[in-house]
Every structure is written in C-alpha cells, then in structure tokens.
C-alpha cells in the first residue's frame, strides 16, 4: 500500500499492522482498532454475530469489568465507541495525548481478550435495538434495498441480523467467531493526533505482549462477487404516512478508479441543495421533504441509489421525476457550470472531512485494512479535478440503465407502488413483479404483477453503532 510522507506504517511481530499520522496542532489522539470482519464473513445461521460480538467487547475483560471500562473512559473525558458494518468492525476512542498509556491497554484487551460472558443480557439489548430499528422505515428501507440488489448473498443481509438469528447466538458461537475473526493479521491499529509513531509502537508492544503471532488460518474470507439477479422490486407493507423508497443499482467496488467520478456524479444528481433531484422533486414541485443520492463501496461490488420519502398521492409523480432525471444524466453530459460546481463541492467535502483527528484516523485504518492507496490531499484534489462531464454521463449510463434498476419500498399497499412504477417499464426495464417482504419470515414472500396493461400511466449507512 502506498502511503504519504506524513504517515508512518509498521507491522508488529505478531502481524498487527500499525499506521499513524502526527497532527502538531492538536493535544488529543484518535485511536482505532480496525478488524477485517463484518456481516459478509458470517455464516447464514449466525447472522448478526459480528454486531453482537462488537457489543460484547464492552462487557468486560479479565482485568476490567464493564462498569470499570465505562468509569475509566468517563474519568479520562474520552469518547469510546464501536461500530460494525458489512466488511469490518471498529473500536475507537478519542482522548488527551497524556492518556494514551491508560486508554490503549484497555482497548487492546477489549479487542483481543474479551470475557464473552453474560451473553444473554447483551443479546437482549441487541434485540431491543432491532425493535427500535424496525420502527424506523427511513433506516429499514436501506436494508430492503440491499436485499433487492444482492439477494441471498451476504451483502444482502442486515448487519444487525434478524430476531431469530440473534436469539440463537450463544457464548460458544461468539467465542468461535472471535477466534477466527480477530486474529492479529486481520487487525489494523490506526492513530492520528498528538503522538509519535514510535510512542504508539512501544505502547502496543507492551499491551500486546501476550498476543500470539498470526497463523495462516487467521483469515476470514468473504464470498466473492454476487451473481447478477437483474431488476427487482421489493415491498415491505407497513402502515406508514409516507412511502419510503430506494431506487438504484449495483455500483462500484471500492478499488474502482471511477470512484472519484462517482463522487462528482452524486453531487450533480442528488447530494446537495442545488442538485437536480433536490431542485426538481422538492424545490420546484414540493413532492418530498427528503430526496437524495447515496452510495456504498464494498470489496467486490457496491450500491448506488436514490432515497425518496413522499406521501402516497405524490409517489407516482415524484418517482416519474426521479426516473426522468436518472435518464437525463445517463443521456446528456452535465454542463460545464454543473461540473465545475460539483467538483468544487466534492473537493471541499473530501478535504473538510479530513480536518478532524477522528476522520484522519478512520481514513488511515480503513485504507490500510482494505489495501487502498493513502493519497495526499493534493493527489485527492487532482483525482476529482480530472473527472470530466463525459466520465459522469458514461458512469450513469452504465450503472443506472433501466434494466439494472432495483426498487425497495416500505409503505401501505402494492397497488400504489405498482402504478408509480409504470414509467420504469416504459423506459424498457420490463415489468418485474412486486415481491412482498414477509415480516414474519424476514424475506420476500409472494408477488404482485405490475403489468402496465392494468395500470394508468404517470441522498455508516450500514454501520451499526453500539453507543
């Protein structure tokens, strides 16, 4: 992995990779342990085990009880958190530079030697989290969208698991998952702030003195790229005031060099107040409060979509306008002024996001974990400046072709959705049936035809955080 001069990178004898960046103006340190295992590396019967294990890191170690961990970080005035997503788990904290020797050993023990006892209590906490999540269609619709895109592939499963799968998780399964997922070769320690790399290495070597060297089997391999499944429409029936809908397609893998064009394309299409979708759907027509583009990049695939929340009587028109804008961006190059504004916006967002130690630590850890180049800010700006109008149009034409589009929605009935989908059929996407997502089975169950003959014409998402 190529790194910039301001970064220092080492590998400990046991295989843990360490990367840091000194920020002279700060008196704090952001520290993170990045584990290369998330929901995509889970077996189907243990869906949600990565997320539950992340919770269990806070339940205590041989040296520190759960309450002692909480009290210590409160005493340090430090924030400690953890999150799980599709392909990784992260434990991170931010504290004063004088507290490194107190915070780091506790975090290291939490990662490498959690007790993993009292599972039932934390499992109940996660079940409560699932209940809260099920009450929020603005979050749940993104899980349905992933399922529509990726089907039975692990990328299509919710990170948090299901009520059934989490209820079946016990101490033995957690220990087995920890043993195969938290090996030294799968872990990156990243830090940014007021510290020297040698200081970090010395503290880690003391804290990890008892951690054995990585073994060849200390590696969790996720499934390969998901098989194509074509256009799909998935509806979860729920008595909501609005329809919550995602429309989009599989996107780019994180190593795809077109990811810089994707940033610019998202700005033009729907990630800012001056974007096409925001202006056409919200500002000019008042059809929705929330409309925006979103994307996720994974190792073997990705997502690109539009979120839309609108009342049933507005769904058909709002979706027709959205589809029209998708078709327009795929068929016509953005104007020179749009491109200039979008590139400046993308550059500003990228650079401003790196002006905190936490963001820099996160970039260091993720880039090292996933073997991505660590560009300097000037290099990052140059990549965005190199994006052309044709790059945006061509990428949209490839990714957002009508025959590739999938739809996921949460709302009261399938007939309203079926009527709203007519313009998609008229663009040549065919007429996929609406699959009903069964709340009891946790999967698609049944279908409703959406043939145009019987119908009138016409924005870490994935991540689950512990606290």
SSE blueprint:
Elements: E1 7-11, E2 17-22, E3 28-35, H1 49-56, H2 66-75, E4 79-84, E5 89-96, H3 100-112, H4 119-134, H5 137-150, H6 163-167, H7 171-181, E6 187-193, H8 197-207, E7 232-237, E8 243-250, H9 259-269, H10 276-283, E9 290-297, E10 302-310, H11 312-331, H12 336-352, H13 357-369, H14 377-385, H15 389-399, E11 406-411, H16 414-420, H17 422-429, E12 434-438, E13 443-448, E14 464-465
Parallel strand pairs: 2-6, 7-11, 7-12
Antiparallel strand pairs: 1-2, 3-5, 3-6, 4-5, 4-14, 8-10, 8-11, 9-10, 12-13
User: Which CATH architecture of the largest domain would you pick?
Assistant: 2-Layer Sandwich
Largest sheet, spatial ordering of strands: 1-2-6-3-5-4-14
Average of the residue pLDDT scores: 90
What would the CATH topology of the largest domain be? Answer: Cytochrome Bc1 Complex, Chain A, domain 1
């Amino acid at each position: 992995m190529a790194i910039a001069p301001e970064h220092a990178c080492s590998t400990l004898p046991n295989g843990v990779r360490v990367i840091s960046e000194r920020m002279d103006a700060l008196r704090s340190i952001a520290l993170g342990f990045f584990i290369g295992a998330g929901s995509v590396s889970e077996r189907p019967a243990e869906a949600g085990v990565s997320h539950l294990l992340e919770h269990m890191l806070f339940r205590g170690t041989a040296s520190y009880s759960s309450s002692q961990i909480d009290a210590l970080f409160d005493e340090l005035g430090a924030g400690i958190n953890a999150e799980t997503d599709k392909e990784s788990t992260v434990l991170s904290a931010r504290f004063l530079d004088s507290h490194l020797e107190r915070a780091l050993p506790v975090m290291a023990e939490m990662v490498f030697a959690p007790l993993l006892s009292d599972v039932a209590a934390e499992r109940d906490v996660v079940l409560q989290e699932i209940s809260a999540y099920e009450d929020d269609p603005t979050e749940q619709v993104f899980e349905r969208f992933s399922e529509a895109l990726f089907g039975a592939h692990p990328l299509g499963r919710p990170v948090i698991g299901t009520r059934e799968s989490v209820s079946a998780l016990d101490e033995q399964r957690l220990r087995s998952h920890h043993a195969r997922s938290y090996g030294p070769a799968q872990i990156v320690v990243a830090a940014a702030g007021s510290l020297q790399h040698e200081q970090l290495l010395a503290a880690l070597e003391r804290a990890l003195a008892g951690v054995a060297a990585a073994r060849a089997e200390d590696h969790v391999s996720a499934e390969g790229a998901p098989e194509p499944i074509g256009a799909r429409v998935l509806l979860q029936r729920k008595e909501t005031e609005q329809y919550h809908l995602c429309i989009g397609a599989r996107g780019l893998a994180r190593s795809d060099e077109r990811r810089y064009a994707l940033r610019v394309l998202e700005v033009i299409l729907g990630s800012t107040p001056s974007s096409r979708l925001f202006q056409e759907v919200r500002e000019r027509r008042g059809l929705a409060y929330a409309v925006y583009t979103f994307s996720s990049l994974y190792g073997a695939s990705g997502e690109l979509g539009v979120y839309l929340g609108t009342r049933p009587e507005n769904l058909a028109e709002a979706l027709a306008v959205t589809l029209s804008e998708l078709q327009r961006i795929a068929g016509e190059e953005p104007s020179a002024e749009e491109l200039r504004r979008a590139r400046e916006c993308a550059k500003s967002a990228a650079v401003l996001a790196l002006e905190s130690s936490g963001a820099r630590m996160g970039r260091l850890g993720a880039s090292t974990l996933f073997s991505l180049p660590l560009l300097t800010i000037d290099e990052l700006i140059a990549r965005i400046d190199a994006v052309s109008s044709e790059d945006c149009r061509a990428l949209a034409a490839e990714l957002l072709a009508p025959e590739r589009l999938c739809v996921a929605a949460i709302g009261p009935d399938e007939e309203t959705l079926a009527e709203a989908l007519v313009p998609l059929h008229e663009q040549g996407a065919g007429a996929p049936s609406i699959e009903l997502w069964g709340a009891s089975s946790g999967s698609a169950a049944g279908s409703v035809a959406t043939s145009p003959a019987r119908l009138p014409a016409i924005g870490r998402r994935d991540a689950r955080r512990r606290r």
